[in-house]
Amino acid sequence: MAVIPRRxxxxxxxxxxxxxxxxxxxxxxxxxxxxxxxxxxxEGGHKYLAGKIDVLLLSGTYNxxxxxxxxxxxxxxxxxxxxxxxxxARPDAAKEFTDKLKANPLQKYPARFKQIVNGMxxxxxxxxxxxxxxxxxxxxxxxxxxxxTGGGPLVVGRNNDFPGVPAGADQFSNIVVYNPSxxxxxxxxxxDVGAVSADTGYNCNGLMIESNDALEGSSPTQERMLxxxxxxxxMFDSANLGTLSTEVASTRPNMxxxxxxxxxxxxxxxxxxxxxxxxxxxxxxxLVIQTNDFVDPYWGETQSNSATSDQRYKNMVNLANQxxxxxxxxxxxxxxxxxxxxxxxxxxxxxxxxxxxxxATFEYWVAIPNYQEWVQVPLKALFENCR
Length: 387
Prior knowledge:
Strand content: 15-25%
Number of helices: 11
Radius of gyration: 22 Å
Largest sheet: 10 strands, mixed
Helix content: 25-40%
Distance between the termini: 61 Å
CATH topology of the domain at 140-166 and 206-377: Penicillin V Acylase, Chain A
Order of helices and strands: HEEEHHHHHEEEEEEHHEEEEHHEEEH
Oligomer: single chain
Low-confidence stretches: 1-26
Structural class: alpha+beta
């Protein structure tokens, strides 16, 4: 004869089942991604961790993806907003911050980005004015292929440098993967929390883009869009390197920029001002290196955006030649992590992030000095329905 559980036991059993169902429901729609730790889901978007770095997997319309972002990153967005408020209140606040705020009103944003920001605001509880102050994206880069990789696949390394950033900023970076439902290319961007602008991005066709500021002392052209807003647009709209290159060459940025674009076969460096551009000559056959100086002879003598730019450039050329024929992802990580004092581009206290990408295989590594050592992020598994 069946034994009927006593009422308290029965209630406990029902409660336990309900909790189990709710917990499984939270993650039932989230794909298991090897190498990432699942954290939470919100309205069809999912949050993971790569080490200590947040990785967001978003899908749908731009407003839906913004809502997913705001719901998943509400706490971090409020934390970063408070950090920015304190930073801007300092009497020694960096001019780059205040200049970008003045040149970055939300009414200038492309429609897709306005929808993302609106969605973020709706679910994070941050006002649109606060959202505007979050989008303040703040540099060395190298692409090697052919003779420099010994016939192996192209590999690109990128260091984000921003001297003078106060302590605490390292926790406010994330990797955001957008899978739009409008037919645009699925893309991933390394960016600040709450930002839709980005100075480093990747898309599902194995394209990569990054930019470095150039020409110190230049003021933003107020009627131009931030170049770090243009770059994500290019990636959403480019299925191949030809389209991406044309997008960059057709744009005159709000401030002088050096922009690297890559696919699995080659890297191309563009040097852009508000009135002109050059497709810079490669550093060598199978090698493109960028810091913060224009290198095309067309420009004549130009002023650098960094006192260390020339030395970093020379260091990177030397490192590339020392490793010629054997540069792969592991070697590139070592090169980008070599301090300037040891002949590399890494600037302790100024380099805020390091990234390495192999377009042919989507192998992607990221590190945040003093916060997260090199960790691999499986980009290919995060892109949906690449066209």
